[in-house]
Design brief:
The protein is of the alpha+beta class. The chain has 6 helices and 7 strands. The N and C termini lie far apart (about 50 Å). The structure holds zinc ion (2 copies).
Length: about 150
């Protein structure tokens, strides 16, 4: 809690109770919740908070680099990640889970191998992968069907 207040202050953001609640909820989560998921949780403790406030707080926190908003959509909704270090995301089309993927393929990656793409210097690549997660593969016996 104290750490969260410090983080906000360092960015020049007023540590309002809503910002603290949203950041506190998101910290440590690896499930890439949507604004709605976070709202449902936060509203249990803070019944007066609105979904719009949660959403604008998340937008603000991502602008200030405290969380990252993923371009990948969970059932059409934006989702958020408190983990700021570079990693990739895998979306399961069956259960909708978004799973973190860490790869060290920078040197082998054909896309960024040259260090540039059409004259543009590539500094970072974030991949979004789509498919079936290992749980759903097991559940559906997917591999056997192939
Ligand atoms: Zn799945
Ligand atoms: Zn992630």
């Amino acid at each position: 809690m104290k750490k969260i207040i410090e983080r906000l202050r360092k960015k020049g953001l007023k540590p309002t109770s809503q910002r603290i609640a949203v950041l506190q909820n998101l910290t440590g989560r690896r499930d890439h919740p949507t604004a709605g998921d976070i709202y449902n949780d936060v509203a249990k403790k803070h019944p007066t908070i609105s979904k719009a406030t949660v959403y604008s707080t998340l937008k603000l926190l991502s602008e200030y680099g405290e969380v990252q908003e993923l371009s990948i959509r969970k059932m059409g909704e934006a989702c958020f990640d408190p983990v700021l270090e570079l990693h990739h995301h895998f979306l399961c089309r069956e259960c909708g889970r978004i799973i973190d993927v860490y790869t060290e393929c920078r040197d082998e990656c054909v896309i960024i191998k040259a260090g540039e793409a059409g004259g543009n210097v590539v500094e970072e690549v974030q991949a979004y992968m789509y498919g079936l997660c290992s749980d759903c593969v097991k559940k559906n016996n997917y591999l056997k069907k192939m």
